[in-house]
Write a structure and sequence with these properties.
Strand order of the largest sheet: 4-1-3-2-9-6-8-7-5
Number of strands: 9
Helix content: 10-25%
Largest sheet: 9 strands, antiparallel
Number of domains: 1
Shape: globular
Distance between the termini: 18 Å
Strand content: 25-35%
């Protein structure tokens, strides 16, 4: 079982048309879910940004092929391979690592997916990744089983599900040390770039709107 987070940007002045075109892909996603090509896809929006989460255990689907109708409404991203519209957000933190498809099946009903966005101070990116890798390898399964943080440039996207679900670890992390800081919240607060209209430190993580989601029921 593998997990993917993707990021795309809506073209200025065409945001509403872009959302309408993205919505047209829902039947295609439902078919992919019915055929077990992908599982638990959810599409989120934050301002002019859109984020896609899904899981797969066989051949990987790519959002370029899923959201074809929306392609002209998304900004292109440059890369060594040329321009693309959906960029992969790399997994820099997860509470739990999938061991196999059966182990990863939801054991309780998922009421809704949750997406949150935050920005890092560029000089603190390496520090943030270091501490989070240390945390996940020292204390696997320490939080929501399906919680995961992806990064692209200085932007983080956190995906989780409600209600949260936690279970005892079925595997050992890569570290046997116990160096995860006890003042975690205070330390992490130093890594974040403040939003222009931020009222307090707790306002750092911003909620992303769920555009649509398609769930399979494993139970």
């Amino acid at each position: 079982m593998q997990r993917r987070l993707y990021r795309a940007v809506l073209k200025a002045g065409k945001e509403q048309e872009a959302i309408e075109k993205l919505m047209k892909a829902k039947p295609k996603l439902e078919k992919l879910v019915d055929n077990r090509n992908i599982e638990y896809p959810s599409l989120f929006r934050f301002g002019n940004q859109v984020f896609l989460y899904f899981e797969f255990s066989n051949l990987e689907a790519h959002p370029d092929n899923i959201f074809i109708e929306a392609s002209e409404y998304l900004e292109p991203w440059p890369s060594f391979e040329g321009f693309r519209q959906w960029v992969l957000m790399h997994d820099i933190f997860h509470y739990q690592l999938p061991q196999n498809p059966e182990e990863w099946r939801r054991k309780t009903k998922v009421e809704r997916p949750v997406g949150r966005v935050i920005r890092l101070k560029p000089k603190m990116i390496a520090s943030y990744i270091f501490y989070h890798n240390q945390y996940q390898e020292e204390k696997p399964c320490d939080g929501d089983k399906f919680g995961i943080i992806g990064i692209h440039e200085d932007l983080l996207f956190f995906y989780c599900e409600e209600p949260t679900y936690q279970e005892k670890p079925s595997y050992a992390g890569m570290l046997s040390t116990k160096n995860t800081p006890s003042n975690w919240g205070e330390l992490m607060g130093k890594h974040f770039k403040a939003w222009a209209n931020m009222k307090n430190a707790e306002d750092n993580w911003r909620a992303a709107e769920v555009i649509f989601t398609t769930y399979t029921m494993d139970m």
